[in-house]
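input
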Amino acid sequence: MVSSPHEAMHRVFQDHPGLFSRVGPALGVDFPPYTSFDVMPTDLTELQPVERRVDTLLRFDTERDGPFLLAVEAQGKKDPAKTASWAYYLSYLHSKHRLPPVLLVVCQDRGTAEWASRPVRIGPAPWTSLTLRPLVAGPHNLPTITDPAEAAEDLALAVLAAVTHAKEPAVGAILKALSAALRDVPEDVADPLAELTAQGLGKLPAADLWRTLMAVDLSFYKSPISQEIRAEGKAEGEARALLVVLQARGFELPAATEQKVSECRDSRTLNQWLSRAATADSLDEVFRED
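output
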């Protein structure tokens, strides 16, 4: 079954195709800005009863290098069988469209990204007939965007950074920067980006933090997820999110501290603790008295 994080990691390129050329420097390549693009059909099935479907497929036209195809695959874990599918995708696309294809694999953890980055040589040892070399984007090379001003400069990249760093300690600071940046854009722009972020975080601990930030920082917001959060009760959600963030960052919570957080209904205090929890080095720093 396709998961929400899986969808978000490649759908962001469908909604913001220019993101690919901006991600390029982090991947060590320089793709020119596109002059036009098309969202291509993703079905790569042949007449044989084997369905092969790439996650996202885009066609770009450029002035410098001409047209090319971009296949985006979201990869949640290591899968030795997947490399054969990727090689098939590229060969099929080149054969069908007569255009050079590029494969971009988007990952949410460093282990999967490292595995996906390894060249796959197809052929006997004395002679490699094909070499699969995908571009890989993940927490190892995408920027950690923790400044709201920087996030506002490229909201799509900030969303991708949040999704790919969802399991990293810095995700709290990234999400706070993104939520602050979304305050200053029209609702029709902020809405799909906020929902895509929530989708990309799935059921990871960072998802609770994002829900709380939307309830607190985006109190003006009318998106479906923010309405759902406020219906649950803002203070209760903030307390739950704070506990999740502290546990995700590796803090051992004494029973008294956990009770203190759970019973607190002062949104201002909870929000202050939550803000500190994203970067604090100790529990004393989180709960210090000002």
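quick obs: The chain has two domains: 4-137, 148-286.
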